[in-house]
Design brief:
The chain has helices at 23-34, 46-50, 63-67, 80-89, 108-121, 134-139, 152-164, 176-204, 210-216, 224-235, 245-261, 267-281, 292-300, and strands spanning 16-19, 39-42, 58-59, 72-75, 99-102, 124-127, 130-131, 142-148, 165-170. It is an alpha/beta fold. The protein has 2 domains: 16-173, Rossmann fold; 179-300, N-(1-d-carboxylethyl)-l-norvaline Dehydrogenase, domain 2 (Orthogonal Bundle). Strand 4 (72-75), helix 4 and strand 5 form a beta-alpha-beta unit.
């Protein structure tokens, strides 16, 4: 550990900087503070960060200020470009012993570019995308996918991962964690679109769409996700997002672009990308990803 940091010395309790206080960042920061870890936070719009002052977090004016003295820096920002820009701004606050945990969803190539940036900055890099949305983030039960070239980093980030998640899947190489996240999200988005289209078809055939959810319940294909999202689609309770549709559209682009680069054509993922893109163009981007049901119904009409 950074011996100059009294919050972490001798106790295995890292000081943590969280850069990006959106829905996920705010929830994770609260759980980090609740676990007794010293916390520094920064957000481009200061107001969301100031809401964390009641946890004991130090609210900082710049990325460099937030990172000063931190053992672990956690980035929860919009995309690869923003992550890279913010970490360049953090340069003066970084220590050679700092571990950078990068949790924004990016492509495997994108995370390798960020790992190269980490080497230029002189810090240790952990490719660590998240499995889960707002609810598990609040509950501290996220899944963590992680990979690093520095084995010592695993133990150093463990208190942070335990504070925000219920399990961690470690992979062998930087890039694999982000690749697995895209494979996982391909399944998530196919599930959302599949439920939306099943409900749309039932309604068009004069069948109560609740019956679709009832029929799935108890079957081998049932899941908590279906039982949660399905009723919200039917009731049009979609304007408070767990996972914003515009973020899902970004991920759909990453999935299909990465697949194309690997010489693959993923038929379902390509259709989902198109559907989500149209939904964003029609002003649904800030709704929940399940608002793709609105797009399916509009197409049906």
């Amino acid at each position: 550990m950074n011996s100059s940091n009294p919050a972490s010395s001798g106790r295995g309790r890292p000081m943590v900087a969280v850069l990006g206080i959106g829905t996920m960042g705010a929830a994770m920061a609260r759980n980090i503070a609740a676990a007794g870890l010293a916390l520094r936070v920064w957000n481009r719009n200061r107001a969301p960060a100031e809401e964390l002052a009641d946890t004991g977090a130090v609210v900082c004016d710049s990325p460099a200020d937030a990172c000063r003295g931190a053992d672990v820096v956690l980035t929860l920002l919009a995309n690869e470009k923003v992550v890279a820009e913010v970490m360049d701004q953090a340069r003066d606050g970084l220590d050679p012993r700092t571990v950078w945990v990068q949790s924004c969803t990016v492509s495997p190539e994108g995370t390798r570019r960020l790992a190269d940036q980490a080497r230029r900055l002189g810090v240790i890099y952990v490719d660590a995308p998240l499995l889960g949305t707002k609810e598990p983030a609040v509950a501290g039960t996220l899944g963590m996918l992680a990979a690093t070239d520095d084995e010592s980093a695993r133990e150093r980030v463990r208190p942070v991962f335990e504070a925000v998640g219920s399990r961690t899947v470690w992979l062998d190489e930087v890039g694999q964690a982000s690749g697995l996240k895209l494979a996982y999200n391909a399944w998530v988005l196919a599930t959302v679109e599949g439920v939306a289209e099943s409900l749309t078809l039932a309604r068009a055939l004069g069948i109560d769409p609740h019956k679709v959810i009832e029929a799935i319940d108890g079957s081998a294909l049932n899941s908590q996700y279906v039982q949660t999202k399905g009723p919200k689609m039917i009731e049009d309770d979609l304007d408070t997002p767990s996972f914003p549709l515009e973020a899902a559209a970004k991920d759909a682009m990453l999935i299909t672009d990465t697949a194309r680069a690997a010489g693959l054509h993923l038929g379902i993922a390509e259709v989902v990308r198109e559907q989500l893109g149209v939904a964003v163009d029609r002003g649904m981007g800030r709704a929940d990803v399940a608002a793709t049901y609105r797009q399916s119904r509009r197409t049906a009409h």
